[in-house]
Amino acid sequence: MILDNRSENLKVYIKAPSRLHFGILDLSGALNRKYGATGQTINEPCFELTAEESDRLEITGSEKHTERARSIVLQIAKIFDLPTDIKIQIFRGIPSHIGLSSTTQLTLAIGKALTYLCDRSVPIIELARRAGRGKNSGIGTYAFKSGGFIVDGGRRDEEFPPLIFRRDFPEEWQFVIATPDEKRGLDEESEEEFFEQIKAPVEIARKTCHLLVMKMVPAIAERDINVFGEALSEMDKLVGEAFSPQQGGIYQSGVVSDIVEYMLEKGAYGAGQSSWGPTVYGLVKNDVQGEGLKREVEGFLRKRNLSGEVCVVRPDNKGARVETG
User: Fold this and answer.
1) How far is CA 65 from the centre of its chain?
2) Of 11, 55, 159, 178, which is least packed with CB atoms within 10 Å of its CB?
3) What are the two backbone dihedrals, phi and then psi, of residue 60, each rounded to the nearest 5 degrees?
4) How far is residue 293's CA from residue 283's CA, in Å, rounded to a whole number?
5) Distances (CA, A) of 297 to 176, 271, 292
6) Contact 52, 12 (CB under 8 A)
7) Which residues contact 210 (CB under 8 A, 6 or more apart)?
């Protein structure tokens, strides 16, 4: 047992959101800081799980998540010198390597659960850092911690990227997300290798940072969806240009590129590829436009004989939901 002096087993429920990653701001390192990033927390898909004390390690749920969860439990237990007598039930999950922060969300959810059951208070940032998250971007971690529209300031050496801006996203604005059954994005090991090699021109960094500060952020403050959408599309193309040596173009595949263009053609205010893809997002102003664009994109995939998932998601301005008892 984790703690023997309690008459009843503790239990914790955690719901962890996804995040859209709008891009890395600076791959040049010209100012002796690496990366910097911006993104938005969304409510779906999500990890939803419960964890409770047990006499052994037991994990139930979809097989595609349970093996990863087991590895994470063992990792967290080793890092913080904790027992692994825990029962985890995973009810819903975020598919891995599609650009929505699956690994970070599952790591933080399990880390939060295990440390709670062991009566250890570990701040989320410390948990993420010691578990190896946030090496290139802190957006997923801050999405878990507080939700909203997020900007991190990159890092020097091995520091965790600081949160430099966070704001509630207009809740009536929504995103249509489409994940075609294309090649998955990079795994953690491949991503690390890539980031060690790439160095994009400083001019791209100047453009992305200027765009962020003078167009994206003010548009959120003024709730101007037209300007924000324009900035979103511009940011997506600039970041894609910086990453094109690895992706072979602005987008990770021709299908992703076509979906982005189709969403814009059908009325999305802005559109782009989240992280390494293949998930594509399109910004809409409300439920009605969201459902309409969803149907259009589903029809587009059918005409192309492509399979995939399309859904309408909402901004999440709260971060992970944790209930204990």
Assistant:
1) 16
2) 55
3) -125, 155
4) 10
5) 9, 13, 9
6) yes
7) none
Residues 93-133 pLDDT 10s: 999 999 999 999 999 999 999 999 999 999 999 999 999 99
DSSP 283-302: EESSHHHHHHHHHHHHHHHH
| Tokens coding 323 | 């209930």
For residue 244, with 0-12 CB atoms within 10 Å meaning exposed, 13-18 middle and 19 or more buried, which class applies? middle
Secondary structure (3-state) at 313: strand
Q: pTM of this prediction?
A: 0.94
Q: Which of 84, 64, 68 is nearest to 76 (CA)?
A: 84
**42 within 8 A of 313, measured Cβ to Cβ:** yes
DSSP conformation class of 315: B
CB 268 within 8 A of CB 280: no
pLDDT in tens, 211-234: 999 999 999 999 999 999 999 999
* Closest alpha carbon to 134 in 92, 110, 95, 105: 105
Q: How far apart are CA 121 and CA 255, in angstroms?
A: 45
Q: What residue spans of 35-123 are helical by DSSP H? A: 63-80, 102-117
User: Is residue 267 within 8 Å of residue 229, measured between CB atoms?
Assistant: no
Are the C-beta atoms of residues 152 and 161 closer than 8 Å to each other? yes
Contacts of 49 (CB under 8 A, 6+ apart): 13, 14, 61, 88, 89, 90, 91, 109, 110, 113
Give the number of other Cβ atoms within 10 Å of residue 39's Cβ.
Answer: 24
Domains of the chain: 11-324 (3.30.230.120)
